[in-house]
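Ticket #4471: structure output looks truncated?

Reporter: J.K.
Steps to reproduce: submitted the chain below (398 residues) through the standard prediction queue, then opened the result file.
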Amino acid sequence: MKDWKNWFSSDDWLPVLYALLALAVAGILTWLWMRMLERARMRVRAWKGTRIQAIRFQKMVLLSEERIVSLLTSVLGAARLAGCLVLLVLWAIVTLNFFPATQQLEEQALDYVTEPLASVAMGIVHYIPKLMFIVFAVVAGRVLLKGVYFFFHQIELGTVRFRGFHPDWAGPTYQLAKTLVVVFVVIIIFPYLPAASSGAFKGISVFLGVLVSLGSSSAVGNIVSGVVLTYMRPYQVDDYVRIAQTEGRVIERSLLLTRVQTPQNEIVTIPNAQILSGQMVNYSGMAAGDGVILHMPLSLGYQVPFEKIEPLLIEAVRRTPELEQTPAPYVMHVGLDNTVARYELNAYTRKPLRLPYIYSDLRFKVQAVFAEAGVDLTSPVFYPRPSQLDIQDRRPSA
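Returned output as attached by the reporter:
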């Protein structure tokens, strides 16, 4: 009994009291932290459908409302656990300092906690100048891009004009300038990125560069061809063209490919490299002058005189409403065969998008005009007379 009185009269019970007080404070802070996060969780659930809405890209839902609420709830749960652990560690460190026997242990534990935090904090402080340079470079790049966009947009609208620079070049030129500015900014800020000088970062950069160089050779070729075609201006959207074996209206043109809609309503995709290396005919470009010349071949027997054929073909052109009378149509004598003479009717039109239908209408008119004139369009067919050797070869063997 005397020992208990001596213990209570001494200061040995004060560390225990301080530890209990620290535990009570830690418990109160933990309760407040849990209460605050629980209210935040309820607030997040209440915001569903009002402040929290689905993230969409056009008609595609990237993150639904339920998914966003679930992610925020998970973040709050992780914050609750982290806060409890931090308060527990702080209580343990403070409690160890109350007892003389564990003060050295408290100092070691405090070093284990503060040294990593101090190292991270010093790293952030030392990185602030580099971060400021990166922010300045990005902001300067965005300002430069806005200025470049405004300049080329004015050219596209016709407000600003330069001799030899067509307005339809403004869009592609802006895309090229934008790419150059972005690449330039990336090159500038690359050395200032975290761990940019590490071997792992350099190895990943080299690996990605090799993949891009090996896998995009054809794509790069099409892009270069698209740039060349853009400044050559061989065709525009809505032009009627013939590319290789494809004939139709250009409905899309980009740096990689060109899409052509045929008269059969087929969409044909043609790489720009194939267009640049092949042959192309732009009928719409011809229509800007005298017009596109339609060529219609015709074969007739020698019993029909040429003096009668030419007026009939010219009359067929006159009856075709989408063919021009000026310049005047003409007929050419293009060949003499054994049984037929070959002619070619040439007529002008300024409606290249209607070429297949004009050809069809012209053929109908030719049939009608020749039927009214009583001229037979059928041509005699010449079969060569078999030789005596062929007759002998056809005799059955004995």
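Triage note (M.O.): checked the attachment and the full token line is present. The longest strand covers residues 292-301.
Status: closed, working as intended.
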